[in-house]
Design a protein that fits this description.
By secondary structure, this protein is α/β, with parallel strands linked by helices. Helices cover 36% and strands 20% of the residues. It contains 17 helices and 16 strands. α7 packs across α8 and α7 packs across α9. The longest helix has 20 residues. It is globular.
Amino acid sequence: MLIQEVKIESVRSINTCHWSIPRDKAKGWHVVIGDNGSGKTTFLRSIALALIGKLDAGGLRQSWSDWLTRGAKEGKIALRVSRNRDTDLVAASDSNSLGDPPQFGLKFARTERSESQVGLEQLASDIDPHRHVWYGGQGWFCASYGPFRRFAGNDPRDEKLYHSMPRLARHLSLFDERIALTESLEWLKNLKFAKLEGRSDHNLFDNLVRFVNDSDFLPANVRLHDVSSRGVTFRDANDVDVDVMELSDGYRSILSMTFELVRQMSLSFEADALFDPQNGGTVTPEGVVLIDEVDAHLHPSWQRTVGRWFCKHFPNVQFIVSSHSPLVCQSASEGSIFVLPRSGSRGEGRMLEGDEFHRLVYGNILDAYGTEAFGSETAATRSEPSRKLHSRLAELNNKEIMKGLSTEERTEQVKLRAILPSAASSMG
């Protein structure tokens, strides 16, 4: 399954939003950017909610009145997806006839009892989504991850949902920052035990270790060293063993999400179908993965490469991510960049195209901040103190030409040119 179209109306801060991508360009790295308060998280949560469906959505314990835009009578989330006929199973009666499902989704509507009460309802569709995306059969893979990605910290009540509502569990951390990705470490230990016991799924552990220890996954030559009942240990470039819980936030953010993603895929697809037998560093299943603030806790060098890494090793996945970082956009050469309108405006959002898209993907960070995509305030890349220094340097340069400089002014000019090398080169 891949998403081809998203329509959102009157959901929280989003008045109207239309996101679409051709089917042949759906896989890859799709970035959603916008100011704080523009609705990036709402955009991702809306997609996740429509993929979860009405029945499982009750497990999120949300107040739907908080979802409906103030003053609106009704809000809508509609999706159009493409089906992979080889892996996305449908209800038996539709198995031979269903190609790509028709548009489906959810709506928020005020109840007849009270205008202050809002209910969640299923949008009318030619084919009930409970027969395909919400069916619960093999395939139709989707998962979501919030900005607080970590291994520990779950409420025991939330951990029960991983077993009682597994489809919902794939999306929990996007809706609640208290949710940790705790299941993946226990799963990793169980895979190790399966290998030691010679069970049929033991190859999955070896494939996963090779996958993690691929040379371009973790920076600074960090490697997965040992998995035992005592814990999961990594070895750094200095040959020092470090418990996974002691790794930096950046490492834990990426590791917890990657382990959990592979774990969730192992529940939806056969273990032998997870990794490419010709290339153990490639995870083959198709699906949709939503990541909020993918740049959180990541060093700038990692922000630049994280998208390319995910697309290389999960080539059949459609990643839809939100970010504040122009570096994250540089992985969108195989994907798209969508800009949400500023909070409080009546805009609908837009796909970046042409030169504006190319400047974000192929330009440097100043090229990116020089566009309107990150807001007019950001486009002015210099701070107020910096602008004052530039103004003073220009004043001294002009005086040098017209009248000449005193010794003190010459010293000041040399110092400013050292501080502002780009200005010095552009001025002369």
